[in-house]
Amino acid sequence: MTRIAMIIRPGSIVSPLQKFSCLAAVLVLAGIASAIAAEPRPDVAVKTKYIDASVTLDKQIRANAPLADNLLAEGKHWIEKNRADAAKEFKTSPELFGEGRAWTFERSYAQTSNVGGRYVSIVRTDYIYTGGAHPNTLIDTILWDQETKKQISIRPFFKETADNGPTLKALRDAAVAAVKAKKKERGIDDSGAINWYESVEPTLLKVGAVSLAPSVLAGKSAGLVFHYSPYAVGSYAEGSYTVFVPWEAFRKHLSPQGLEIFGGDRPANTKPGSE
User: For the chain, is the Cβ count within 10 Å smaller at the N or the C terminus?
Assistant: First the structure.
């Protein structure tokens, strides 16, 4: 706890201004301490002269031991791979690290929904800086099955998920339309010569990182949320895109298992950007 001492000589009089200044200092330092305390501490951290890396889980994930163990194992493997790569580069090309500046790798996992107590959606965000004009941010998603204690895909929710098949074509078209609508909201001109949607393909691995959206109906998901990193569907200056596709848009493609979990609308208090 931060302490502030105010030295007063015997017989001296403390003015109202002195009292106010002392109180203001206490409030400022208390605010700084609260802000620092609010920041989650990394669950794994590695710091050397050539790498500064960390993995952080949010409190919901930490409370789910099997899920936390799975993600920490994944995160540790990610750190170790980057540590080995950085060590090799530091040995052969130390000039790439500038004035003793270590490369930065920060990974965070955040739970965004829990559908029916079984399907947990997690957004994984990687912040990477190895020199250059700016850092890179990579966004991906994970779907965790509480029953099998494994990471799964959305494949079981659909009748078919063949590359270039009707399901993924429908999902791709709906996701692109949602991004275009979001760009219009932001006032971004999307009529240039660059086709920013060329990399969004009707395949399970290239349609976009997907998570299950919460619903006002208990045990249901209102649809799919697509997460796109900077550069994926626009210039770096545009940042990332998070867009929502309601379940009605792909209802006819749902399998019996999918029909069981999709339904209802998004909560009215859905935060902008989280969709």
Answer: N
Indicate the pLDDT class of residue 275, thresholds 50, 70 and 90. low
Alpha-carbon 240 to chain mean position: 10
Reading the block at residue 13, the tokens are: 């009089």
- The residues near 197 (Cβ < 8 Å, ≥ 6 apart) are 176, 179, 233
CB 105 within 8 A of CB 89: no
Residue 87's identity, in one-letter code, is A
Tokens of 197: 């949607």
Instruction: Tell whether the model's pLDDT for residue 24 goes beyond 60.
Output: no
pLDDT of residue 2: 42
Contact predicate 266/222, CB 8 Å: yes
Residue 248 tokens, joined = 């009605």
For residue 177, give the 3-state DSSP assignment: helix
Global pTM reads 0.83
Q: Number of C-alpha atoms within 13 angstroms, CB side, residue 160? A: 9
43/16: higher pLDDT:
43
Phi, psi torsion values for 180, nearest 5 degrees:
-60, -40
Helix, strand or coil, per DSSP, at residue 23: helix
